[in-house]
Amino acid sequence: QVQLVESGGGLVQPGGSLRLSCAASGRILSINDMGWYRQAPGKQRELVAKISRGGNTDYADSVKGRFTISRDDDQNTVYLQMNSLKPEDTAVYYCNAGVITTMGYFSDYWGQGTRVTVSS
Asked: Tens digits of per-residue pLDDT, 42-66?
């Protein structure tokens, strides 16, 4: 099995910064795309940012220029640096990874979520 464990959420004032981390562990052969999604109260889960194994990135328009996604394949970890945070960034943030397991199967895995609250 594969587990994704997120960390780094919390309460921050508008204009502040947070860095989220997500570490994947388990029967991992390789990881394709890794990404961050978020779900605000009463809203659907949405893509925030994703990064391919080759380092290509894609961002939601609402976070471009403020958030940066990166990955460390040696550590099977993906990061999300969030700057200039706004109250509308408040949500539960979920990590996602497309994993090829040591058994040769491909599957999407999700973390348990980490809460980010932007408020004064």
From this structure: 999 999 999 999 999 999 999 999 9
- Phi first, then psi, for residue 76 (nearest 5°) are 50, 45
Distances (CA, A) of 56 to 42, 50, 81: 31, 8, 16
- C-alpha 34/C-alpha 69 separation (Å) is 9
Residue 94 near residue 80 (C-beta atoms within 8 A): no
What is d(CA 101, CA 48) in angstroms, rounded to the nearest whole number?
25
Longest dimension (CA), the chain: 48
Encode pLDDT of 61-88 as tens digits. 999 999 999 999 999 999 999 999 999 9
d(CA 94, CA 38): 6
